[in-house]
Write a structure and sequence with these properties.
The two termini are about 40 Å apart. Helix 1 runs parallel beside helix 3, helix 2 packs antiparallel against helix 3 and helix 3 packs antiparallel against helix 6. The protein has one domain. The protein contains six helices and no strands. By secondary structure, the chain is mainly α.
């Protein structure tokens, strides 16, 4: 599910022409969905194992698989539609700030920068949100046990 959300995000960013405000809202919405998936993976991992660590592991693993899917899709899209990406980046603030005069080189390095940041950030975010989902599940489990123990 994380990979599918990433694919949709990348496709929308690359092929749907909307205002920058709508694009930002769309991207934030998909990122929120992905973060919810990380929390849910932690929830389910803790529910199935009864352990915080395995819940976090499930969330981190979902992030890594999702990012791998996103990177493959992103690289394929960038390879097949390089000129479209170059047109988009040519007017970006990042390109102007870079001081680069070679759009092809900037596009290549921008793609690698985006990929590396996703590889670095996703597992960290997944660990935090997976822990939150795991703690929540384990807390509810304890409350359920306590509640059924008092009345059972």
């Amino acid at each position: 599910m994380v990979g599918i959300a990433f694919i949709i995000t990348i496709a929308v960013e690359n092929f749907v022409t909307v205002s920058s405000q709508i694009s930002a809202i769309s991207t934030l919405g998909f990122m929120l969905l992905i973060f919810l998936f990380f929390s849910y993976a932690g929830w389910r991992g803790a529910q199935n194992s009864g352990q915080l660590g395995l819940g976090m592991f499930a969330s981190i693993w979902s992030a890594m698989i999702g990012v791998l899917i996103a990177l493959i899709f992103g690289f394929v899209i960038n390879f097949l539609f390089t000129q479209r990406l170059e047109q988009t980046l040519q007017t970006s603030a990042e390109y102007f700030r870079s001081g680069s005069h070679d759009l092809e080189t900037f596009t290549f390095w921008n793609t690698l920068d985006s990929a590396s940041s996703h590889l670095f950030e996703a597992p960290i975010i997944a660990a935090v949100l997976g822990a939150l989902g795991s703690f929540t599940n384990l807390g509810f489990s304890q409350l359920r046990k306590k509640h059924t123990g008092e009345h059972g």
